[in-house]
Design brief:
- The protein is mainly beta.
- It contains one helix and eight strands; from the N terminus they run ββββαββββ.
- It has a five-stranded mixed beta barrel with strand order 1-3-4-6-5. It has a two-stranded antiparallel sheet with strand order 7-8.
């Protein structure tokens, strides 16, 4: 089974294009921190190229920007190619089946800012009196 799940921050704005047959394709890159510290006590970061197609591509290009936190589920795709200087190259890409936006729409930094229903921060919500609930 070829399945991968990643959560990370966009390293650049998504780039959208269209194939000759009119299908949308969006390319982006995310930085994913490793779970464990390295020998120096810091945490290493891995960078992954993400490719989304069709409606997912359109939504990513429309709503995402550099710094946004996203969750991606998809598959790993590898390819060999020849560089302009004649040497061989190797690439690992993630083909996204699903992309979930984890940053809020109004959050310019790509961090925190949990929003309920797209309107009010959680800290602004008022407690509910349990005695008035119909169930």
């Amino acid at each position: 089974m070829n399945r991968v799940y990643l959560i990370g921050n966009l390293t650049r704005d998504p780039e959208i294009s269209t194939t000759t047959s009119g299908i949308s394709v969006c390319r982006m890159s995310i930085a994913v921190g490793r779970r464990f510290s390295n020998a120096e006590g810091g945490r290493d970061t891995d960078f992954f190229n993400i490719t989304a197609w069709r409606g997912t591509a359109d939504n990513c290009a429309k709503f995402l920007k550099k710094g946004n936190k996203i969750a991606v589920s998809g598959s790993i795709q590898t390819r060999n190619y020849e560089k302009q200087d004649g040497t061989k190259g190797f690439s690992i890409d993630i083909v996204a089946d699903e992309v979930e936006f984890l940053s809020s729409r109004n959050d310019g930094t790509g961090e925190g800012g949990t929003v309920v229903g797209g309107s009010a921060p959680v800290s602004d919500l008022q407690p509910i009196d349990d005695d008035n609930l119909p169930f």
